[in-house]
Amino acid sequence: GAGVSQSPSNKVTEKGKDVELRCDPISGHTALYWYRQSLGQGLEFLIYFQGNSAPDKSGLPSDRFSAERTGGSVSTLTIQRTQQEDSAVYLCASSLAQRMISGTGMTSGANVLTFGAGSRLTVL
Amino acid sequence: RKEVEQDPGPFNVPEGATVAFNCTYSNSASQSFFWYRQDCRKEPKLLMSVYSSGNEDGRFTAQLNRASQYISLLIRDSKLSDSATYLCVVRGGYNKLIFGAGTRLAVHP
Question: Which residues on chain B are in Cβ contact (under 8 Å) with A51?
């Protein structure tokens, strides 16, 4: 598609239920990121995929959170046994692979992250 | 210490003013730096990359000081439409892009 698509846009769930959030990145973008943003706060890094592998899962808040990416495209973020503190906007972003331009200190335009509109999760 | 730190503001300035934001980062090995802009209840969007030699895009100027590990964003001739949150972003290990909490700018008539 033309942009990063996330679904659902809004999800209200009861404490203890599992939720699954989906991200469909821009076609051809190999890098995919998940962030979380609580009201009035900055973006909290959750996980990063390069292709189907996740070299850095350090941002996942607990073992209730997991994410996968298949076929180098769609990614799902799953939160098990949701808690009220999980309430936030979950943002997905994609980009081409990053490359340094030798000798310039600059990186290729592939650094541009394109964000989806986010999935707003409310846990009651 | 947070990996990327910003003054949360808000910076309240009149139209036409010049305003500057700073951002500090903790990882001296960081190689790539960016400023993103986020409007209220919207997703962040890239404003500009920050190059070693500094760079300018219209009314916006970005600077990098590797020795002191900070980057800056200067906005000249502020417009009402510049009102937003400005996010400092640093690329860390494993290509992880780390966002600061943002600096809020409010430009008033």
Answer: none
Average pLDDT over residues A24-32: 91
User: Touching check for B102 and chain A: CB below 8 Å?
Assistant: yes
Q: Which residues of chain B have pLDDT under 50?
A: none
In this model, does residue A104 exceed pLDDT 70? no
Q: Decide the pairing of beta strands B103-108 and B19-25.
A: unpaired
Whether residues A111 and B94 touch (CB distance < 8 A) is answered with no
- From CA B99, how far away is CA B8, in angstroms rounded? 13
3-state secondary structure of B94: helix
Mean pLDDT across chain B: 92
pLDDT at residue A108 in the model: 52
Residue of A49, A48, A40, A121 whose CA lies nearest to A79: A121
Q: How far is A64 from chain B (nearest CA, A)?
A: 21
Ramachandran category for residue A111: left, alpha or beta (phi over 0 → left; psi -120 to 50 → alpha): alpha
- At A56 the pLDDT is 79
Q: Which two tokens stand for residue A50?
A: 């390069």
Chain A positions touching B49 (Cβ under 8 A) are 106-107, 111
